[in-house]
Specification:
There is one protein chain. The protein is α+β, with helices and mostly antiparallel strands and 225 residues long. It has four helices and four strands. Strands 1, 2, 3 and 4 form a four-stranded mixed sheet that branches. A hairpin with an 8-residue loop joins strand 2 and strand 3. Helix 2 packs across helix 3. The longest helix has 18 residues. It is elongated and about 95 Å long. It starts with 30 loop residues before the first strand and ends in a 17-residue tail after the last helix. One of its GO terms (cellular component) is ribonucleoprotein complex. One of its GO terms (biological process) is translation.
Amino acid sequence: MDIGRFHICIEKFSSASVFCQKLPAVCLNGYSTLLAPANEVLIPQELLSSKTVWTPDRELGQYEDLVARVTNFHNADKGFMVLDGDVFDVPIRKDIVHRVVRWQLAKRQQGTHSTKTISEVSGTGRKPYKQKGTGRARHGTLRGPQFRGGATMHGPKPRSHAIKLQKKVRRLGLKIALSARTAEGKLLIFDDLEVPSHKTKNIVQYISQMEGMKKLRLLHSSMDT
């Protein structure tokens, strides 16, 4: 039976196709790709033994299902989970990520900037001096943009900076981001978030023990709620 290629990485998120099963320590940290015939079981019997699994390099973005290790804050083995290849093994496209990030940042802008027009600037509407005979340039108001403290012409007004982006592109951007994090080994799947104490310093201590962890985002599945 063709076992397929088995690749190992590490990360943090939960996916749809849930498969949690206690397995021996054949793959203690990470993700693996698994190719099996349609009429065979998802995890071949050979992988349930205690022998070391070969971990060759593989080409990313092949839409292959990934077998991921499930753990917790104590780094205990909680079984394995199958991650859908249509979400966690998508080809990386920087142009899609750029469009999604630009859409997010534009939508995040408050757009509360505002400048005063000539009708909004405080001041008298009286003509500063007569039209002729002074040798100076003619003016009808001191609230014009050419004067200090005067109006701002064509300045920004409160508005929305949001741009439109198709839902398919948004979803694809999220899939690419998850696939990139999975390929980098930065996705961890936790069985639970139970800690002895929920004081902030204890949680910071657990997170600081994770190797190479600079930023953390917790994503909770609502499947059990």
